[in-house]
Amino acid sequence: MKTLETDVLIVGAGLAGRNAAAELRETAPELRVLITDSGGAASTEIMGFSAPVHPGDSPELFLRDILVSGGGLADPELARTLAEGAIPELRRLERCGIRFDRTADGRYDTVNAVGSSLPRVVHSGTTTGKQAMRLLKTDMRNLRIVHLMKKDGIITGAFADDGTRISAKAVILAGGGFAGLWKFSTWSRNRRGDCLILASDAGAELTGLGCVQFEPTVAVFPEHCSGFPVITTILHEGATLRNRQGQSLLPREAPIPRKSELAKRILREINAGNALPHGGILYDLSGLNEEIFAGKYPEYHIKFKQIEPDFKRLAFEVKPGAHTTLGGIRINSRCETSVPGLFAAGEAVGGIHGRDRIGGNAGLEVFVFGRIAGKSAADYVRKTKRIRPPKLDFPFRPTPENIFREIAVILDSSFDPLKDPGKLEKGIDLLKQLPPFPHVRLAIAALDDALSHP
Ligand SMILES: Cc1cc2nc3c(=O)[nH]c(=O)nc-3n(C[C@H](O)[C@H](O)[C@H](O)COP(=O)(O)OP(=O)(O)OC[C@H]3O[C@@H](n4cnc5c(N)ncnc54)[C@H](O)[C@@H]3O)c2cc1C
After folding, report:
1. What residues have CB less than 8 Å from 88, skipping those under 6 apart?
2. Strand residues in 31-107 grouped as ranges (E)
3. 222 preceded by cis ω (within 30°)?
4. Are residues 167 and 115 in the same domain?
5. pLDDT band at 242 (very low <50, low <70, confident <90, very high)
6. How many domains does the chain contain in total?
7. Residue 369 Cβ contacting ligand 1 at under 6 Å
8. Is 149 in the pocket of ligand 1 (CB under 6 A)?
9. Is the CB of 41 under 6 A from ligand 1?
10. Does 190 contact ligand 1 (Cβ within 6 A)?
11. Is 361 found in the same domain as 306?
12. CA–CA separation, 280 vs 259, rounded Å?
């Protein structure tokens, strides 16, 4: 069996993990850091992130929006840390060379995410996440971490799925969310909540698992675009949603509702029998100005033209799809979990957004909390002696792929934006009939929590 030794082990090389690694590299170069990743980070998909730079905006106003959107379930301290961290992280990225789009008069070109009181999403074209991933490129091992080791209640290392044993003084969990457990999801690759399971099995608390963000407008047609999230910000720019009878789901003059409300509205319309032939609602883009769209979203423009060369005829059928999970590992504002030596950041954590997330805030949290996790782990490691992990047999029983398929079908039919108690209970019953693999337990916990937070 292979054995590795490091000071800090980072699980996940999306932007949360890469920011933690960058912080460690820059402020604690004497420490050894090992990053492991199993591929498929969602961070490449980040178009932009929230920052209160619009005239009249402020961190206080931003915080208020987060708390309103969180519906009483956001942790105010974490939300404040997020709101106050936005502008410093934007400046840091600019110093590193990312050029954010500006308007002709030199202001930031901020996109109006649904649910925000002001336009707040700063972006570099639509590839902010990809650029940041390149900028924070890091050496990593292609290993899936499957078990955390502890001695006397303190983290001592981890096991990878190939049996590699890693001795570490601290572990940062940055393995993303679990929206990939649904079949109809915007990103199914490796977003299965491994880090939540690792944390919970190590004794850390999870929080808010029933808070799941469904992207309201995910394509079901054209078929080759199935699962593609068609951006909602264009609802502010002339795009509209129509049912089978051609009626608009968005009354004129009324503000565009936040994503959770929009997802419910679309689903109710579908459930009422008003869907189009492929089971979705019409996302009619004919009201968009092509030139403005092409200028603002060049990559999407290219993609859309490949789907339908005549922009005026472009239309999708859409329905809500599991997108990001807002619940996860409970942390404090230093990214510490309740287990000494265990830290977490990014979509794997819960409590920052509460019930609903404002568009652009997941892209922000990976920078703000990734950096904090790196700093806190460094502080901890500097004052901690290495404890050798106990001698353990390789303890891993993987969740088999056929069980993932069963979980996906059950979640699709039982857990949607409407959180119908009858469906959730049925889902729990069905999941309980499956063998109790870790991801089955996670799915049951999510449904249970959704029942208690309708
Ligand atoms: C299609 C799409 C578009 C989005 N657009 C935006 C946007 O424009 N703005 C915004 O704010 N948010 C957006 N989001 C949300 C945002 O992308 C995510 O919340 C964020 O990227 C999560 O980053 P992360 O670093 O926490 O996790 P990820 O980027 O998902 O990375 C997690 C990594 O951990 C690895 N991993 C998982 N388990 C293990 C394990 N056991 N061992 C080793 N490695 C492991 C995975 O392989 C993965 O590479 C979007 C999400 C999607 C799906």
Report:
1. none
2. 33-36, 48-50
3. yes
4. yes
5. very high
6. 3
7. no
8. no
9. yes
10. yes
11. no
12. 17
Length of the chain: 454
CA atoms of 181 and 412, how far apart (whole Å) = 9
Q: What is the dihedral of CA 343, 345, 350, 356, to 10 degrees?
A: 170
pLDDT band at 395 (very low <50, low <70, confident <90, very high): low
Report pLDDT for 312. Answer: 85
Q: Which of 38, 197, 300, 356 to mutate to test the pocket of ligand 1 (most atoms within 8 A of CB)?
A: 38
Distance CA 314, CA 418 (A): 29
Instruction: Verify whether ligand 1 is closer than 6 Å to residue 16 (CB atom).
Output: yes
pLDDT score at 115: 76
Q: Specify the residue with its C-alpha closest to ligand 1, atom 42.
A: 144
Q: Is the CB of 422 under 6 A from ligand 1?
A: no
Distance, CA of 430 to CA of 309 (rounded, Å): 45
Among 190, 213, 361, name the best residue to mutate to test ligand 1's pocket (greatest count of ligand atoms within 8 A of Cβ). 190
Say if CB 326 and CB 356 are below 8 A apart.
yes
Q: Does 437 lie in the same domain as 290?
A: no
Tokens of 399: 């969740």
Enclosing domain of residue 253: 216-321
Say yes or no: 316 and 354 in one domain.
no
Measured in Å, residue 195 CA sits from the centre of ligand 1 at 12
- 169-193 burial by CB neighbour count: b if 16+ within 10 A, else e? bbbbbbbbbbbbbbbbbbbbebbbb
Lowest mean pLDDT among 112-126, 143-157, 347-361: 112-126
Cα–ligand 1 centroid distance for 31 (angstroms): 26
Pairing mode of beta strands 206-207, 328-330: antiparallel
The protein residue whose alpha carbon is closest to atom 39 in ligand 1 is 175
